[in-house]
Automatic annotation (TrEMBL):
Alphabetically ordered keywords of this record: Membrane, Transmembrane, Transmembrane helix
Chief location bin: membrane
Protein name per UniProt: RDD family protein
Ranges where the RDD domain occurs: 5-161
GO cellular component, one term: membrane
Transmembrane segments: 12-39, 51-70, 127-148
One Pfam family named in its UniProt record: RDD
Organism in which the protein naturally occurs: Gracilibacillus thailandensis
Bilayer topology term: Multi-pass membrane protein
Length: 167
């Protein structure tokens, strides 16, 4: 019988993963500042769509790919989950379910990027505020679901048919 991971385990694992992602983003920022300085003598001007593409391809997509590989692999866990001795349980097709889970899990982050970037170029019009509002709503929904559900599953878990369990 598999035992569901506790709320505390999941939240601490999330915070550890957040620290790892933050370290990656800080490193990415430093590298890109150096590239812009050396190659362009400063930060070049980008269009709205170029900025959207850069944000997606350098921050969101690599994180989704890495975490999907880690959770879809034999250990079925991210760095935070490994430290807290929990893992993702799959009924079948771990690689596909891990990808679905991580796309859904990082959808609020991507929508937040889209809203802020769109807002920077269009004075935070209704579309920017819509993206930002949906992003915040989904993030809170995921947290609330982990806190109130007996099995501590959030929307991404339900969509992917996964459960986070103790090892």
């Amino acid at each position: 019988m598999q035992t569901v991971a506790t709320r505390k385990q999941r939240i601490i694992a999330l915070l550890i993963d957040w620290l790892c992602i933050s370290a990656y983003l800080i490193l990415l920022f430093g590298i890109m500042q150096l590239v812009y300085l050396v190659a362009f003598n400063g930060i070049p001007a980008f269009s709205n769509w170029q900025t959207q593409l850069i944000a997606t391809l350098t921050s969101v997509l690599p994180v989704i790919i890495l975490l999907s590989i880690l959770e879809g692999g034999s250990r079925a866990s991210t760095f935070g989950k490994r430290i807290k001795k929990i893992k993702v349980s799959y009924p079948d097709y771990p690689k596909i379910r891990s990808t679905v889970r991580n796309i859904a899990k990082f959808l609020p982050w991507q929508l937040g990027h889209m809203g802020v970037i769109h807002g920077m170029y269009h004075d935070f019009n209704w579309l920017a505020m819509f993206y930002i509002s949906i992003s915040i709503f989904l993030a809170f929904l995921y947290i609330i679901m982990v806190l109130v559900r007996q099995d501590h599953r959030h929307l991404a878990d339900l969509l992917a048919g996964t459960t986070v369990i103790k090892q």
